[in-house]
Amino acid sequence: VRVVESGGGLVQPGGFLRLPCAAFGFTFSDYAMRWYRQAPGKEREFVAAIGANPPSTYYEDSVKSRFTITRDNDKNMVYLEMNNLEPEYAAVYYCNRDVYYGQGTQVAVSK
Fold first, then answer.
1. Which of 14, 21, 24, 85 could form a disulfide with 95 if both were Cys (CB 3.0 to 4.6 A apart)?
2. Contact status, residue 90 vs residue 109, Cβ threshold 8 Å
3. Torsion over CA: 102, 98, 36, 17 (sign)
4. What is the tens place of the pLDDT at every residue in 71-97?
């Protein structure tokens, strides 16, 4: 099992990023997928999840109005779209399936 995140970078406050996560080594459509994040000096925390079938979505309260998680089972991909980013959302974002995490992708928000 392997998941690989990408798409991080530096954006200005109010900006947008889309984080793709590619999944390998398992039947992607059978599993729920999640995103976590870890800011400097803080513990890793849950951000969003999407179920297998149906693809119900769940969000941490602070991101509900800004983030959208989606999946493409044909491409074995899960995405996190992040709108109206503010500095407090800066962190390393991790894709997850059960106990498996990727290496993370850094999101920075600054003028």
1. 21
2. yes
3. positive
4. 999 999 999 999 999 999 999 999 999
